[in-house]
Amino acid sequence: MEEQTIVLILCCLGSYLCVGDVVGVEILSKSKLEKCEKGSDCDALNCTAKIVLNMAVPSGSSGGEASIVAEIVEVEENSTSNMRTLRIPPVITVNKSAAYALYELSYIRDVAYKPEEYYVKTRKCEPDAGGDIVKICERLRDENGHIIEHTEPTCCPCGPQRRVPSSCGNFFDKLMKGKANTAHCVRFPGDWFHVFGIGQRSIGFSVRIEVKSRSTVSEVIMGPENRSVTSKDNFLRANLIGDFVGYSSLPSFEDFYLVIPRQGKPGQPEDLGRNFSMWMLLERLRFTLDGFECNKIGVGYEAFNGQPNLCSSPFWSCLHNQLWNYRDADQNRIKRKQIPLYGVEGRFERINQHPNAGTHSFSIGITEVLNTNLLIELSADDIEYVYQRSPGKILNVTIPTFEALTQFGVATVTTENTGKVEASYSLTFDCSRDVSLMEEQFFIMKPKELATRSFKLYPTTDQAAKYLCSAILKDSNFNEVDRAECQFSTTATVLDNGSQITPLPHPKTGIDGFVESIESIGMKFWEGLVDFITGKTCRLYSHSNTYKFLNHIPVEELPSMSTCWDGCHVFPAPYSRSCSWKSASNTGMW
User: Fold this and answer.
1) Residue 387 and residue 521: Cα distance in Å, rounded?
2) CB burial of residue 539 (10 Å; 0-12, 13-18, 19+)
3) Are 13 and 70 in contact (CB under 8 A)?
4) Which residue, 165, 250, 357, 531, could crosslink 537 as a Cys pair with Cβ 3.0–4.6 Å?
5) pTM of the full predicted structure?
6) pLDDT tens-digit profile of 516-541?
7) Averaged over 200-227, what is the pLDDT?
């Protein structure tokens, strides 16, 4: 037997809620699987096509029941990238029961709900005294008439400091009737409870999967105890892979005993009953299974009679911390609107509601969402595919001019479904060069509907250029139905490094600024007068203006440039009319 995966497909599912509190269904992965069977090397491969769905099915709110209906609408084959719509979509219905935690139980023994101490005042107390003397504290016998050990009374003398304070009477009472004393004993009237040890836990729920294809219905039921099932007609096969949950709120009771009321005979019960308000979970250290320890659940006759200093100890000593004490504590908490500490009811939900509940297990509901991973295989041999194909046309393509690199352009393409049925289309926009690639767009158009799609254009150069592009419209079968050629232009990128101006010094203000201004005016007037008398003003003026003129001439033109000196000013040669061309030493060549 060989199994070989041939091709992957994508299944699109339309899902909706039927009955339950589920938020949805998640399809984790989808594939089409070719299972090929080969008996020998000579046999040809016998392949059957399968549609495989990997689904995550959540529980309802607080882990309750959930129901989901999903319809397989279309598939996509990766080998051809063709979307194929199923002519008659199979409908999958998944019903998931409430999830619960299941615990194994093992019967241990029965214990009294409320042990009680009795006493009888008498003057002739003896361990073997009859019922006429010690009354209820007379020794007990079993069903065969044999005396039960350690059921005899304990005789305590009279006195104010005794277990039950009593008067010893006067001298004549002692002489005539005997010395007063009290007989003490423990008895177990009233209710009894079964005690169970709690073992390994497990998760329980059931999943029912139904598939309707044409007129046939296939069905399977599965759960954690039955993870792989196949329908009778072999159309449906399902596998329970696992659960996605950490069970953070799932308690462990390995160190606890479960106690429930006894309804019938002592020993292993035939039914746990439904009186959940009396069910309690208590730590194991609170019990004495042999009855030899005082102040523990399950205390026996021997522990009571053998306690040290019984006659001087308080009444009810050795009989504390019993079942009735814990239940009373819970009832007080409930009256104060608090959660009980020991009772099962009020702490957990859906108690013992698992199917086939018996005396060897009990369960509590899981309150967190439990996501179950299901792998569902459907036979695809008889599934027919259909798709709607309609012609289309590109009506218009517009691209405004934009600046390269600093901006992006937008190509707007208007298309029309020119056919008579609704169909899917794809549109691509490709340019010849220096434009980043654009992703293909998929959309649906109704008959005669116009659709406008946009593509962002990102040139890869900053130069002004013209670009040639093509808009290609394809139908649902990915065949080209129309093509439109277009071109657009970009302007060159404008670079601007910003202003580079040296700021002027901030003028001074106040009396100091006024004095400095007067001094500056006086100094400039005096220096100008001296320069005029000496002739320096003319030379500086000529030198300054000539330098300023030459400073704006490119450096490469300076060697061919000549100036003339007229005795006061310097002129560039091209602009001088009366200047004769002489050497630089005589004429002041710059």
Assistant:
1) 96
2) middle
3) yes
4) 531
5) 0.58
6) 666 677 777 777 666 666 555 444 44
7) 88
**Residue 573, helix vs strand vs coil:** helix
Residues 4 and 36: beta-carbon distance below 8 Å: yes
CA dihedral 321, 322, 328, 333 (to 10 degrees): 50
Query: How many helices (DSSP H) and strands (DSSP E) are in the chain?
Result: 7, 30
Of 443, 439, 395, 444, whose CA–CA distance to 415 is shortest?
Answer: 395
Residues with Cβ < 8 Å from 34, sequence gap 6 or more?
4, 5, 6, 7, 47, 48, 49, 50
Instruction: Label residues 6-27 b or e (16+ Cβ within 10 Å = b).
Output: eeebebbbebeeeebebeebee
d(CA 521, CA 347): 101
How far apart are the C-alpha atoms of 265 and 267, rounded to whole Å?
6
Pairing of strands 91-96, 207-213: antiparallel
DSSP-derived 3-state class of residue 173:
helix
pLDDT of 411 over the 50 cut: yes
200/102 Cα distance (integer angstroms):
8
Crossing angle of helices 510-534 and 536-550, rounded to 10°: 100
> What is the rounded distance in angstroms from the CA atom of residue 71 to the CA atom of residue 212?
10
Tokens read off for 190: 């009233």
Q: At residue 396, what is the residue type?
A: N
Give the tens place of pLDDT for each residue, 80-135.
555 666 777 888 899 988 888 999 999 999 999 999 999 999 888 899 998 889 99
Q: Are 472 and 428 in contact (CB under 8 A)?
A: yes
Residue 535, both tokens:
């002739």
C-alpha to C-alpha distances, 135 to 112, 122, 153, 178, 180, nearest whole angstrom: 22, 10, 10, 18, 16
CB proximity list for 52: less than 8 A, separation 6 or greater: 30, 31, 32, 33, 375, 376, 377, 378
What's the pLDDT tens digit per position in 470-504?
999 998 878 899 999 988 888 887 665 544 444 44
Distance of alpha carbon 109 from alpha carbon 290, whole angstroms: 10
Residue with tokens 């040639």: 468
Q: Return the pLDDT at 87.
A: 73
- Condensed to tens digits (0 to 9), the pLDDT of residues 4-43 reads 332 333 344 444 433 344 444 445 545 454 445 544 455 5
